[in-house]
Amino acid sequence: MNYKKGLKKDIEGWLARFLLRELCHLGPYFVGNRIGKEIASLNFLRKEGYKFFHEAYANEHRVVWTSLFVPSEILFALGLIPLSLEVIAALFAGLGQSPKGLAEAESEGIPTDVCTFHRSALGFAFKGYLPRPIIHATTSTLCDSNIKMSRIGETITGKETLVLDVPYDLTKESIRYLSAQLEEFTKKLEAVAGRRMDPQRLREVLERANRTREKMLEINEIRTSPFSPLPGTKALGFMLPSHVLQGSSRSEEFYTRLAAELKEAVSAKEKSGASPEEKIRLLWLELKPYFKCEIPTVIETDNDIKIAFEETNYVYWESLDPQRPYESLARKLISNHYNGPLDRRIAVLKTLVKKYDIDGMIIFSHWGCRRNNAAVPVIKRELNLEGIPVMNLDGDCVDDQNFTSGQLKTRLEGFMEMLRCGGHSQSASGGRLLTTP
Q1: Residue 360 contacts residue 282 (beta carbons within 8 Å)
Q2: Among 70, 275, 308, 340, which lies 20 to 30 A Cα-Cα from 318?
Q3: Is the pLDDT of residue 423 over 60?
Q4: Is the CB of residue 399 less than 8 Å from the CB of residue 367?
C-alpha cells in the first residue's frame, strides 16, 4: 500500500514538473507586451522570470536549491542555476497555490509555527513540484530556519547541504574565515557538478554584478525624486533580480532598462515644469503579501500615498573586487544590514528616512519571522525618537488563510489618516496610536 502511494506521488510530481516547465516556457507569450501606464521594464522582468524558471525545470542537472543570501555569483560562474526556495514560495503564493504546499507540509509533520515561506516551499518539495537539485546550499544569514529547511530538503532529495556560516561582526578575521568557507564551497560544488571553476569567468560574473549594482544605486537615487513613477508595491517584488539573479545578464539587463526608463520619466516631468504632487511618503520594512489582497490596492489607489522606498532594495554592499572574489563576497555577506547587531539596521533605516524624505514607516511583520518581529519594539522606539511614526502590520506573505485583510486594511487606512493630519510624533500598533516617549 505504501509502495503504491509512493509511486502515485512520484507520478503526480513528475506530471506537475512537466506542466510547470511548459507553463514557464509559454509564460513570456502570455505576458506579451502590455500597453498602458505600467513601467515596461517590469514586463521584461516577468518574461525573464518565466525563462529563468523554465531553464531550471529543463536542466535539473544544474539546479541548486538555495536560500536567499547564498552567493549566486559563484553558482553562475560554474554554470549552475540557483533556485531560492523562498522565492519559489512567493511565486506559488502569487499563483494562489500556497494552500496546497502548506497542507502537504503539515501532513508531513512540519510545525505550523514555522515561517510559511519555508513551510510552503517544503510542501511543494514533498509533492515533487520543484526541479530536482544536485545539491542544497544555504547560509546562516537572516534566519536560522534556512539550515533546518535544507536539512529537511535532504530527506526529500537525498542530496547533501552546503552551509555557509556567516559571522556576526565585520572584521578582518571574520572575512578570512568566511572567505575560506567560500573557497571550500566552490570546490564542493565543482565536485558535485563535475565542473571546474574558470577564474576568468568568475571575474566576468563579478564585473557584471558590479555593473548591476551601479544601476541599482542609480535607480535608488532617481527614486528620491517625487516624480519617480516606480510603485513601491512593485519594487517589493525585486528579490529575484536583486538577490537570486545577481551576476547574471538577466539582472543586469533588467536594472539597466529600469534605470533608463525611470530617468527618462523623471526628466520629462521636470522639463515640463510640472509641480510634484504632495504625497505621504512611506518607508516599507520587510516584504509584502505575495497573494492577491487589498493592501497594495489601498496604497496604490490613494492618490496622496506613496511607498517612496523599501528596506529590501537598499544596496548594502561595496563594489566587488574581481581579483579577490572570495574575500569580496565574504565582505558582502557579512555587511548585510540584516546580519549582525540591530544597531546596524537601525542606522540604515535612519539614513533612508532622511534620503527619501519619509513621513511614516510600515513594518510588515510576517508570521513566524522571529528575527524581524523581535526587533519591532526597538525599531519603533528608535524611529519615534527621530519623529517618524511607525506602524506594525502583523500579517503573512504566503498564507492567505492566516491573513485578516479587512482588519489590516482598516488599520492601514487609520494610519494614513493620522499621517494626513500631521501626526509625525506618534506611532501606530495594533490599530492603537502610541505617543512617542
Answers
A1: yes
A2: 308
A3: no
A4: yes
Neighbours of 246 (CB within 10 A): 24
| Residue 92 Cα distances to 154, 289, 292, angstroms | 21, 12, 12
Pairing mode of beta strands 135-139, 161-164: parallel
> CA angle 96-98-102, nearest 5°?
160
Q: Terminus-to-terminus CA distance in the chain, angstroms?
A: 64
- Whole-angstrom Cα distance, residue 396 to residue 398? 6
pLDDT digits (tens, 9 = 90+) for 133-162: 999 999 998 887 889 999 999 999 999 999
Short-list 276, 286, 302, CA closest to 415: 302
Q: Diameter of the chain by CA atoms? A: 74
Q: What's 62's DSSP letter?
A: G
Length of the chain (residues): 437
Q: Is 169 exposed, middle or buried (0-12, 13-18, 19+ CB in 10 A)?
A: exposed
The pLDDT-based confidence of 427 (bands split at 50, 70, 90) is: very low
Cα separation, 118 vs 101, in Å, equals: 10
Nearest to residue 94, comparing CAs of 49, 59, 153, 63? 49
Q: Which of 163, 133, 134 is nearest to 148 (CA)?
A: 163
Place of cell 502511494: 5
pLDDT of residue 294: 78
Tell me the pLDDT band of 424, cut-offs 50, 70 and 90: very low
Q: Is the confidence at residue 363, as pLDDT, over 50?
A: yes
In the numeric block, which cell numbers belong to residue 341?
547587531
pLDDT at 4: 60
CB–CB of 384/390 below 8 Å? yes
The share of the chain scoring above pLDDT 70, in percent, equals: 93
Q: Which residues of 257-289 are buried (b: 16+ CB within 10 A; e: fewer)?
A: bbbebbbebbeebeeeeeeeeeebbbbbbbbbb
The mean pLDDT value of the chain amounts to 90
Give residue 435's pLDDT: 33
Read off the C-alpha cell for 29.
507569450
Residue 37 pLDDT class (50, 70, 90 cuts): low
Taken in order 137, 142, 144, 146, the sign of the CA dihedral is negative
The DSSP secondary-structure symbol of 368 reads: T
CA angle in degrees (0–180, nearest 5) for 238-26-156: 70
- Angle subtended at Cα 75 by Cα 71 and Cα 78, rounded to the nearest 5 degrees: 145
- Cell numbers representing residue 264 in the block: 527618462
